[in-house]
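Minutes, project check-in
Item: structure for the 123-residue chain
Input as provided by the requester:
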Amino acid sequence: MFTIGVQSKFSSAHFHKGATESCERIHGHNYRVEVQIESADLPGGDMVVDFGLVYQALAEAVEPWDHHLLNEVDDFSGIQPTTEIICRLLYNKLSSRFSKSVFLRKVIVWETDDCWASYCPGE
């Protein structure tokens, strides 16, 4: 099995109702996002998928969130914009962007250098 990964960054603010006091207030993060794609073979003969295509898809997925208050973005309507929710939303946005010969394995989002969440359906 081959696995590739691509990382990107975006900056956003959010707040969490019912969280610790500091997180209930509006605060921001410089998020780091990684997507991992797997394939049992090399579909094009020499690579799982072009890194540039993955980076472009990831950049397009996070662009509506960059420099916005996530609580006010349509993607988060009615849900708390937690790091876990960001992972799942990114997975759902990206999972259909690649050919059927590759599999979006995991999305990891770092809220800080020390705190992260991941989403990997079925695990």
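Outcome recorded: The mean pLDDT is 93.
No further action items on this chain.
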